[in-house]
Specification:
By secondary structure, the chain is α+β, with helices and mostly antiparallel strands. Strands 7-8-9-3-10-11 form a six-stranded mixed beta sheet, with helices on both faces. A five-stranded antiparallel beta sheet has the order 2-1-4-5-6, covered by helices on one side. β13 and β14 form a beta hairpin. The longest helix is centred in the middle third of the chain and has 17 residues. The chain has eight helices and 22 strands.
Length: 344
């Protein structure tokens, strides 16, 4: 049996920009992270067959090769012929059908055993005869996922599945979905603008900006070594400054007015540096990469302190819910290995 592979290499002219996406997925879950309107959902819809790219290829190899779309060979399988499950943001349940009817809608024959298996798997027992309007948002999402998985898709596409939920429900359903995807033998693609979701779910990650891939690779690697300014921003780096290179291992921050030592040799292409807000620690005056905290401002959140230094650097420090006093250390430092070197 050949190795599994989902291949997507497409171009489409959009009003604001040209979408050009090219990736291969060999296993697990791929995340597409990017700001609103960057082409994430359009990529999913091209895989699903809901929209047609202008040119390119979308193909799936499992036991055999299935070409969903190939502009040069004039192949374009209808969405119904692609074994792809699409979870829309609003779940797209049929309002005049009950839970069990919605779950069974994708099955060719009335497979009651399969429906009851899915009802049980998604904790929908007792809700079989209810209509979507009688369900909570979380229950609706579980029905939509049960419907997708009932017919055994090769690919699951998740389009910002948690965007309309409150924080408590989001946490609960994230956990359920993580466990579900672990057991899923096919491919999944999650589109999100939430870096936590991307980190939690995805083995591989693509960062999309204005229709172009600006980073791709192992999720942990992309977060740890974003390489570009926009990638660092999208993966949640709060402190980014333009720099002037002093020598191979030292640079000056032009925004914070401080000099820093780094742990890797600085390439001449480096234009910026980044420091993640959790990467500071208390310091002595003569430590490496020390910053004074005079005139810093402090904001209390339930589980962390947010401290802004006079030069604009931002430090986040974890706290307990019942702690309400915090004395800012006189000096902070950042380890040279935690300074992120970035290109424009």
């Amino acid at each position: 049996m050949s190795d599994k592979l989902l291949k997507v290499d497409i171009q489409k002219k959009l009003k604001e920009f040209d979408l050009e996406v090219d990736f291969e997925l060999k296993k697990g879950c791929l995340g597409i992270l990017g700001p609103s309107g960057c082409g994430k959902s359009m990529t999913l819809k091209s895989v699903a067959g809901i929209v047609d790219p202008d040119k390119g290829v979308v193909s799936l190899r499992t036991d055999e090769e299935t070409v969903y779309f190939d502009s040069s060979k004039k192949i374009n399988l209808k969405a119904q012929k692609r074994n792809v499950g699409y979870l829309f943001q609003n779940y797209a349940l049929f309002p005049n059908m009950t839970v069990e009817e919605n779950v069974g809608i994708g099955l060719h024959d009335k497979d009651e055993k399969k429906v009851s298996e899915m009802i049980k798997r998604f904790h929908l027992e007792g809700l079989e005869k209810r209509y979507p309007r009688e369900l909570s948002g979380g229950q609706q999402q579980r029905v939509a996922l049960a419907r997708i998985l009932a017919y055994g898709p090769d690919v699951i596409l998740l389009d910002e599945p948690f965007s309309a939920m409150d924080t408590f429900l989001k946490e609960q359903l994230r956990l359920e979905l993580v466990n579900l995807l672990k057991d899923f033998d096919g491919f999944s693609i999650l589109v999100t603008h939430d870096r936590d979701e991307a980190f939690q779910f995805c083995d591989e990650l693509i960062i999309l900006d204005e229709g172009k891939i600006i980073a791709k690779g192992d999720t942990h690697e992309v977060f740890e070594n974003p390489k570009k300014v926009q990638v660092a921003r999208l993966t949640g780096c709060k402190n980014i400054s333009k720099v002037e290179i002093i020598d191979d291992y030292h640079l000056k921050s032009l925004d914070w007015g401080a000099t820093f030592e780094v742990s890797e040799k600085i390439s001449p292409n480096i234009t910026h540096m980044g420091i993640r807000a959790h990467d500071f620690s208390a310091a002595e005056k003569d430590d490496v990469n020390v910053l004074g905290t005079a005139d810093a401002s402090i904001l209390e959140m339930p589980f962390e302190w947010e401290i802004t230094l006079a030069n604009g650097l931002w430090w986040k420090f974890d706290k307990q819910i019942h702690e309400h006093e915090f004395e800012i250390p006189k000096y902070l430092k950042v380890d040279p290995k935690n300074i992120i070197l970035l290109e424009e």
